[in-house]
């Protein structure tokens, strides 16, 4: 019924797919670089885009409105299936952000309360930062989506994103993971950072200080910081606890460093505070911690 199958001409078949000896590797012509790095795709100027027809000064103003946050940005390592890190805007009013006040952040009457700045879920009997945003959160400003829209926007705005914002890292694990996902060229763009240490004391893990030294080692990768506040968290505020957390910081030769101390468990001394211990409250009477 059907027509006969045509037999391929051996001459044409050999011309299309020449045979090679066993063990012989096929040699492909090398691409010509023409003076450009093949790993970095060329950025298209996009003259057809109305946005890029605007003067660079106008685009800079738009970038500043989008990428410069009105308050400190919290970064959290979540290790989710879709997201490795998440970022949140600080929810505390300015007067309660005691880490910005050189006097209040060393006063035992005040506590740092950034715990509620990020949504939490219960995982492994612990409340951890949620790795997936809720639908309502998805409707909020999505600056990073615009940053990833094209290479030209990325090249023009990435420096501003890191240099013009203040970042807060509550979990030291976040800073330890950052160099695994950001190149050194972006790590050195950070200018302003707040960092909390792990809680250290009698009940801490045996490798707590070793892990803290690794975090400080990652901190040295951010070698162009202009302001750095590290909030150490000794368990009971004892001298050996403070020294254990401060020593790696002193040995790191960081470009800038301001150390604040917030004791995890406040121990009320007999007779109250020693006069002059608190730079804000000069009296020796001690009241309950305030926010």
From TrEMBL:
UniProt xrefs under InterPro entries: DUF7730
Pfam families the record matches: DUF7730 (PF24864)
Region annotated Disordered, chain positions: 1-43
Residue ranges of every copy of the DUF7730 domain listed in the record: 45-253
Basic residues composition bias: residue spans: 17-28
Domain of life: Eukaryota
PANTHER family associated with the record: 2EXR DOMAIN-CONTAINING PROTEIN-RELATED
Protein's recorded name: DUF7730 domain-containing protein
Natural source organism: Aspergillus rambellii
């Amino acid at each position: 019924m059907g027509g006969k199958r045509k037999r391929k001409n051996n001459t044409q078949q050999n011309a299309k797919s020449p045979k090679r000896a066993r063990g012989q590797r096929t040699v492909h012509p090398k691409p010509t670089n023409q003076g450009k790095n093949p790993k970095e795709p060329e950025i298209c100027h996009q003259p057809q885009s109305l946005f890029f027809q605007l003067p660079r000064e106008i685009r800079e103003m738009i970038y500043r409105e989008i990428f410069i946050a009105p308050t400190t940005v919290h970064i959290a390592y979540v290790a989710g299936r879709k997201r490795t890190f998440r970022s949140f805007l600080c929810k505390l009013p300015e007067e309660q952000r005691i880490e910005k006040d050189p006097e209040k952040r060393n006063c035992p009457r005040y506590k740092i309360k950034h715990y509620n700045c990020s949504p939490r879920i219960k995982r492994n009997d612990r409340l951890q930062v949620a790795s997936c945003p809720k639908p309502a959160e998805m409707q909020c400003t999505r600056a990073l989506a615009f940053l990833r829209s094209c290479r030209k926007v990325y090249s023009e705005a990435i420096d501003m994103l890191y240099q013009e914002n203040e970042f807060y890292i509550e979990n030291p694990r976040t800073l330890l993971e950052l160099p695994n996902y950001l190149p050194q060229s972006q790590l050195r763009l950070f200018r302003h950072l707040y960092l909390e240490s792990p809680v250290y004391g009698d009940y801490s893990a045996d490798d707590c200080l070793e892990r803290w030294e690794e975090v400080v080692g990652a901190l040295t990768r951010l070698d162009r910081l202009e302001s750095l506040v590290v909030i150490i968290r000794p368990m009971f505020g004892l001298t050996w606890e403070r020294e254990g957390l401060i020593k790696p910081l002193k040995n790191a030769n960081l470009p800038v460093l301001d150390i604040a101390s917030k004791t995890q468990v406040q121990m009320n001394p007999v007779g109250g505070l020693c006069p002059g211990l608190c730079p804000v409250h000069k009296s020796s009477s001690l009241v309950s911690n305030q926010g």
